């Protein structure tokens, strides 16, 4: 229990004396949660959260439904945690958008994970890029069920022309947790490549994301 710790070892006092960098992930999360639950102190609750979501990165990509399943997180704690996680997502997204280019698969995967990985439904989105691969826009164009999304090449072409995009990165999420591309994913990618080539827009990649992971079809040689 926090109250049983020496004063200098308590998260709040430790932060004030030594700065936030001196605290562990669990200690920082405990400061946000403030209190534990019956039979479990706040530090243990924080550590259990981190273990359950595979660390800060997994927690950052989690959605509200996942947090609802955590025993001990009532509406107030969930609301505060979701607010802080959303602020963190927006800060990271702002930093990525400020980059001069999204020129590496890792940068693209990171950006798309922030926006799509936690969605409970399957959706298809497109990153619109200029000729130097600078981000023009991210558009979520189609939304489906957990099992299927209908994607219309004509609409993708129209949106690319609207943004005067020179290149695009296709993306969709797999709420099931697997990022393995299906045969349908490969066929869709080729169909969109052909449609966009008619208006001189290159498809640089098709990224599949899920909580905690992402796959680049270009890196796998599937493009």
From TrEMBL:
This is MPN domain-containing protein. Residues 101-223 form the MPN domain. GO terms for biological process: proteolysis. One of its GO terms (molecular function) is metallopeptidase activity. It comes from the Bacteria. NCBIfam families: PRK00024.1, radc. Belongs to the UPF0758 family. InterPro entries: MPN (IPR037518), RadC_JAB (IPR025657), RuvA_2-like (IPR010994), UPF0758 (IPR001405), UPF0758_CS (IPR020891), UPF0758_N (IPR046778). CDD domains: MPN_DUF2466 (cd08071). It comes from Hylemonella gracilis ATCC 19624. PROSITE patterns: MPN, UPF0758.
